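haha ok so turns out i had the wrong file open the whole time. this is the CORRECT one, sorry everyone. sequence first:
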Amino acid sequence: MAIFRSILEDCMTSDNNIIQALSVAVAPVFMLTGIGVIMSSINTRFGRIVDRIRTLLREGKTLYKQQIGSTHVASEIKALFKRAKLLRGCLILLTISVFFVAFTVFLIFVELILDFDVPYLVAISFCASLIPIIIAMILYTQDLAISLRTIDADIKVRGNRAVLKELAEED
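then structure:
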């Protein structure tokens, strides 16, 4: 990529040439770290949802030492399953994004080392890495909305509306 090459050439003429050259060549790798942190967080949420589904299937309507009815348990399992599918979609999209970021880094090094000019391919690859992140964050937002609706329904069924009112007053 001509842009990266010109930045690297400019860096080589300055006092901090090695540090600046490395920062330009390695900058996309920081994006991989960020995606990894997001994936770890989503994976933790996914695991908690799976555990909750298993608990509901095992203990059913007698959970929390209260009879809450099988209809509520079934609706909670349905909501949890939908959330699990959304988070699975997030993880798949973020994995695709990681592939494109890694491919972008590969193209940058091919361009710098082999003096092979592929600026459009680098730009397309980088943009292709951003699109799955955007879609994954939309799915993540949907997961958050479903989780809040599920909590609200759970509070209504268990008769703890006073707790919800108290929490709303704190905000």
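The two ends are 50 Å apart (CA to CA).
again sry for the mixup
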